[in-house]
Amino acid sequence: MSIQLGKLCSCVVQQHFGEVVRIVADDLFAAVAKTLPMIVKSTQLSKSEVCRALAILLKFSLARFQLNKAGTATEYTLDYERVLMVLRYPRYVHLIQTKYGHESAILTEELLRAGCQTASYIILKATSISDVKDKNTITTLRQKFADMVSMNYFMRAPEPKPIDSNSELLMLDCEDPKLFQMPELDLRKLLDLQEGKTTIAPDEGIHWLVNLEKFHLDFRDAIMINAVERLIDANAAECLRFLLQLMYSRTKPWEMVSNPIPFVELKQLCEKKSSNLEMIKFLDQYVAVIESVNFVSKFGDMGGGQYTVNMKKIHEQLIWSCIENIITEKYGSKSARIFRVIRMKKYIEQEDIQKEAMVPAKDAKQLTYKLLEENFLQIQAFRKPGGGNAGAPKSFFLFYVNQTQIVSMLLEVCYKSLYNSITRSTHDKSVNKRLIEKSQRLDSIVEAMKERGESEEYIAEIQETLTPPEKEILQKVKIRVKSLYSAEIGIDETIFLLKLYQQYQKK
After folding, report:
1. CA 90, 95, 101, 107 torsion: positive or negative?
2. How far is CA 474 from CA 243, 304, 428, 436, 440, in A?
3. Most distant CA pair in the chain, distance
């Protein structure tokens, strides 16, 4: 945990949940684990305020609780990884919108907003904001919710259970076999609930969460498929997509290396599900090319050949590409060439760098030490005794690359950049709050006038209440906020890739 990560988490919690929750989150971030009395004492908040803040953090899975070592009290910890995932919510909704349609996206968005809620509540909430409101809408949304559960995008919230019969302390039961089991939702009862004829939900007590792990698997696969498409072509990317489908049927999703996948099975699946005749015709060649870029490895020759997917090796390659792109953008192509030479040689002296990278001596020295200063390179000093009676030992220095250290450094840079982007965007919105609200009110008035069929001259006259200088300021603010938001998405994608690398390295 770092200062930059702490500032970013604090900013995210403040933005989405308010000041009191931020104070409690900051207090938990600074400690390994704390009990309720400890949090009350250190934050100087009332017990009820701390309890409400903890309830919000727990509802949105941003904090965890467990027994202390003595087994006498419950301790709370902040899950800072989950805090950062709050920024990823729009990406989750966009993924579902793209793959499964508008209704599924509405359900996902409402469940993310609620944090933890019953299926009936989410379905009725989605119905209330839907464009069409009738019996068929509820039926459709009920089926879509069930589909999202069957595809593991939604999961039941683990239920807290007493430690023993004599204890008031609780623990979460995360081994519940019903995590992805949809309860029976009677349509008649849902309609009665919607019309206010009853207040009792048919699934009372069964709460649901968005299964973020499933989304992250989709993001991971998309990164690999897009990488193969850029390296080779769209046919190779489709081939890898079918390979990953077969991988999931025989290997746990987060394993470093998949179990062997027979080529025969891959060909059968492609012939069954794909209409890409060119890819099917040259399937063996596409697999060979994918193997040549180290995205799959040949395991054996049985049944036309067997292949494994090495996730750890793939993400190491992706991280190298990411680092080299960052160096190219910041310091130019010569710096990237020097970095690539040092990485390939593993250890190399300064004099050899200029020869291998074919860069003039002065530029090579300057760029090498710039990369060293920015922590993209490391240096190792060696001492050797002087010849004869020369006396003082001589030293020579070797440059090398430490991928793990660079990833940690880049994560810190990403945290800082994300914090700066969010802070600047919030500042722009607050400074121009009056102007933004005026523009929004004007837009709603104009929309209402158009619906009533008012004349174009009258509408133009109303729109002129926003002066040209105000329009210019508003346009600049909109462009800057939009640009900052796009930057946030790009930074978050980089963070996701860097964290994936760290995850596989730990294994």
Report:
1. negative
2. 49, 63, 10, 7, 11
3. 102
pLDDT at residue 489, rounded to an integer: 92
Distance (Å) of CA 219 to CA 154, 229, 310, 416, 474: 16, 15, 17, 23, 35
Nearest to 128 by CA among 104, 147, 144, 106: 106
Alpha helices in 256-332 (DSSP H): 263-273, 277-281, 283-292, 311-331
Cα distance between residue 502 and residue 320, in whole Å: 13
Please answer whether residues 435 and 476 qualify as being in contact, where contact means their C-beta atoms are separated by less than 8 angstroms: no
pLDDT of residue 163: 61
DSSP string spanning 189-218?
Answer: HHHHHHHTS----TTTT-EEEE-HHHHHHH
Contacts of 275 (CB under 8 A, 6+ apart): none
DSSP line for 215-266: HHHHHHHHHHHHHHHHHS-HHHHHHHHHHHHHHHTTS-TT-SBPPPEEHHHH
Tell me, what's the pLDDT at 351? 85
Q: Which residues of 374-406 are buried (b: 16+ CB within 10 A; e: fewer)?
A: eebbeeeeeeeeeeeeeeeeeeeebbebeeeeb
User: What is the value of pTM for the model shown?
Assistant: 0.87
Q: Are 76 and 54 in contact (CB under 8 A)?
A: yes
pLDDT of residue 158: 80
Closest to 10 (Cα-Cα) out of 82, 62, 83: 83
Amino acid (1-letter code) at residue 137: T
The number of helix segments (H) and strand segments (E) in the chain equals 23, 13
**Nearest of 205, 242, 237, 211 to residue 224 by alpha carbon:** 237
- In angstroms and rounded to an integer, the radius of gyration of the C-alpha atoms of the chain is 28
* Phi, psi at 101, each rounded to 5°: 100, 175
Looking at residue 470, its pLDDT comes to: 84
Average pLDDT by stretches of 10, the chain with 507 residues: 88 92 91 87 91 93 85 86 93 94 93 91 87 78 91 86 58 66 83 78 86 94 93 91 92 90 90 88 90 87 84 92 93 92 89 86 90 91 62 74 93 94 91 86 84 79 81 89 92 94 88
Q: Which residues of 332-364 are buried (b: 16+ CB within 10 A; e: fewer)?
A: eebbbbbbbbbbebeebebebbbebbebeeeeb
